[in-house]
């Protein structure tokens, strides 16, 4: 199996708390991006001390309360399945703070991390404030929920976005990359993809490759898998009959999403 493809581990942390993914620290070869998925049974708690990290807590499914310091944000979350295709609530917590998540119902949360030194205010990102964008045409159409885009100065490093791709379509396409710290031409951003499928027995294909093909891996990502993109192009193809969801986390030395398409496939953008 590819070293870029991570299967759910489902490690029981405490009563009612299961770590589905832990792509942080020694579990990851990324410098700027960390990622966890946590399942919480109703009434259970999960918390962390953020030492030198900022975190965006995304209420993937179910309802949760999130506490940081004197602030408590109650009954966050808008959906029982990500495939309801409506934005959800998130909370940004800056470095060197402590947060706690309590499950109001059974819930799944995504924890998106990046190194951070300048402490910023904790921020509730309400579902109704999230920009919904429709990109692409032909068989290259997707729906995008911009949770924490580079136009929002609430974070030091993190960029977080949800993407839906319908049956028979492609996304992160034409193949693009952001692996050069060379602004304004291109930014360096590591990235993770957390995948879900509808129906859940589905799969997608994701290729991660560089111009010189020193990295060139094509993976079959199934429901609940994570794909790590340390560099290179990273398109996703969705088979007929299935809908794809993924949550992207990006971070790098500069908080700017500036990519370049694979020149061999640039013509796809310019079709009438």
In short:
By secondary structure, the chain is an all-beta fold.
What features would you describe in this structure?
With 272 residues, the chain is mainly beta. It has a single domain (7-270), classed as Jelly Rolls (Sandwich), CATH 2.60.120.10. Helices cover 0% and strands 50% of the residues. It has no helices and 26 strands. Strands 1-23-20-25-15-14-13 form a 7-stranded antiparallel sheet, with no helix packed on it. A hairpin with a 2-residue loop joins strand 7 (64-68) and strand 8 (71-76). The protein is globular. It starts with a strand and ends in an 11-residue tail after the last strand. 42% of the residues are buried. The model has no long low-confidence stretch (mean pLDDT 96).
List keywords for this structure.
7-stranded antiparallel beta sheet, 272 residues, single chain, mainly beta
At the first level of CATH, the class is Mainly Beta
| Tally of DSSP β-strands | 26
- What coarse outline follows from CA principal-axis ratios? globular
Q: Rg, please?
A: 18 Å
Mean pLDDT: 96
Distance between the termini: 39 Å
Q: What fold name stands as the CATH topology? A: Jelly Rolls
Please name the CATH architecture.
Sandwich
Share of helix among residues?
under 10%
Count the DSSP helices. Answer: 0
Q: Give me the strand/helix succession.
A: EEEEEEEEEEEEEEEEEEEEEEEEEE
Overall tally of domains: 1
CATH superfamily: Jelly Rolls
Q: In order across it, which strands form the biggest sheet?
A: 1-23-20-25-15-14-13
Largest sheet: 7 strands, antiparallel
State the secondary-structure class.
mainly beta
| Low-confidence blocks of residues | none
């Amino acid at each position: 199996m590819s070293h870029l493809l991570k299967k759910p581990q489902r490690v029981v942390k405490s009563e009612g708390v299961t770590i589905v993914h832990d792509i942080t620290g020694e579990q990851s070869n990324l410098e700027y991006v960390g990622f966890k998925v946590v399942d919480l049974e109703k009434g259970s708690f999960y918390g962390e001390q953020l030492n030198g990290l900022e975190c965006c807590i995304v209420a993937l499914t179910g309802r949760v309360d999130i506490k940081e310091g004197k602030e408590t944000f109650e009954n966050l979350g808008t959906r029982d399945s990500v495939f309801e295709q409506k934005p959800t609530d998130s909370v940004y917590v800056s470095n060197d703070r402590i947060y706690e998540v309590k499950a109001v119902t059974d819930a799944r949360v995504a924890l998106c991390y990046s190194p951070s030194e300048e402490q910023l205010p904790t921020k509730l990102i309400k579902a109704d404030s999230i920009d919904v964008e429709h990109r692409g045409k032909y068989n290259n159409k997707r729906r995008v929920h911009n949770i924490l885009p580079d136009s929002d100065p609430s974070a030091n490093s993190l960029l977080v976005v949800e993407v839906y791709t319908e049956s028979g379509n492609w996304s992160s396409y034409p193949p693009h990359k952001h692996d050069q710290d060379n602004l304004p031409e291109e930014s360096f951003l590591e990235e993770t993809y957390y995948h879900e499928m509808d129906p859940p027995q589905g799969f997608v294909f994701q290729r991660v490759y560089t111009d010189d093909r020193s990295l060139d891996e094509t993976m079959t990502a199934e429901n609940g898998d994570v794909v790590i993109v340390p560099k290179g192009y990273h398109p996703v193809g969705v088979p007929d009959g299935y809908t794809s969801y993924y949550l992207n986390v990006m971070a790098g030395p500069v908080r700017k999403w500036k990519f370049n398409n694979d020149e061999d496939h640039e013509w796809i953008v310019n079709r009438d």
